[in-house]
Amino acid sequence: MEQSKRFEEISIMRVLAMTMIVAFHSLCFYSGRWVKVDAINIPVWNKLSCFLDLIDLNMFVFISGYLYGYLYIYRNKYRHPSEVIRIKARRLLIPYLFWGIPMAIIWPWNTWSKLFYGIGHLWFLLMLFGVFTLTVLLQLLNSQRIRFTSKVGISLIVTGYVLGLIFSKYVYAGDFLCINKVLYYFPAFMIGYLCAKLRVGWMLPNWAYIITPFAIMALFAFVWYPIPLPYTLLQLIRLLLAYTICIELLIILSKTILSDRTHKAIQQIERLSMGLYIFNQMMMDIVFTTPVLHRFFEVHWMIGPFVLFPIGFFPPLLLSYIFNKYKYLKWTIGG
């Protein structure tokens, strides 16, 4: 990406992904996903949450792969595996353990053993560290035996998907160290990496503007009205559409030029995104374990998600801002 672009498209995509994650968490109670408390199932909110779930975290991992690929290929960073492990352990494992251990103590639905399987919503941090670890292993293989070409990248994407399918069904049902999730999200990481390698962010084909709304509508349709196909095939189609949306957003947003003020605001939210993710679900846990609030959102299911979204966005964002202001506290949110 050109230096003058300031990674604006990545900043926008990360903030967009984080917004979708907060929206998804605001819908979890109404889609039967909040297993810690008695949740209800409202079909319309359930379908919408499924749609968001296919894009939000895949976009986050896609962005991670894109930045990693760009810095590795064009800025000569992350050349030493120990450097990657050290940086990612500080940014991902320290927050995971700092918040995961108290969660194992405080919340009755958690146990110490869950620290090895991805405790609560913090599984994403453990999974992402696993993705980077797997990438480092491939990086070592690349430097010793094979040359990383686009064909090799595509082969890794397919292999990751197939292995993820096999592992989740037949090998690690318990998902020790989030291995299943690592393999599930690894293709999104590799697609982001390939986009950086192929300089997709520099391309501005007109078809991207035309296909994007159709890809979004197609994904929405496949979620809302699932056609009678085997679940594995249906899930693959949905994932391919989600990847397509990520790639096209990258292409379209690469043409975006923001004012300095807007860029700084988006960049500030982007810097606080991990803290927002960590505190968001904690806020939701507090809400739904408070009987009065639990009852309120159960009764008022029509407006519930719209009330939950600002509760799950602004207080966690403020907390993340406060933690980010102090040298030692910022480490607890990946700063």
Short description:
With 335 residues, the chain is mainly alpha-helical. The protein has twelve helices and no strands. The N terminus is likely disordered.
Topology:
Elements (H helix, E strand, L loop, with lengths): L7 H21 L14 H32 L6 H26 L16 H22 L5 H22 L7 H19 L8 H19 L6 H23 L6 H12 L1 H16 L2 H9 L4 H21 L11
Helix pairs in contact: 1-2, 1-8, 1-9, 1-10, 1-12, 2-6, 2-7, 2-8, 3-4, 4-6, 5-6, 7-8, 10-12
Characterization of the model:
- The protein is mostly helical.
- It has twelve helices and no strands.
- α2 runs antiparallel to α7 and α4 crosses α6.
- The longest helix is centred in the first third of the chain and has 32 residues.
- The protein is globular.
- The two termini are 24 Å apart.
Sheet/helix structural class: mainly alpha
- N-to-C order of helices and strands: HHHHHHHHHHHH
Oligomeric state of the chains present here: single chain
Q: What number is the mean pLDDT?
A: 85
- Could you list the spans in which at least 5 consecutive residues all have pLDDT below 50? 1-5
Please state roughly what percent of the residues sit in beta strands, choosing from under 5%, 5-15%, 15-25%, 25-35%, 35-45% or over 45%. under 5%
Keywords:
72% helix, 335 residues, mainly alpha, globular
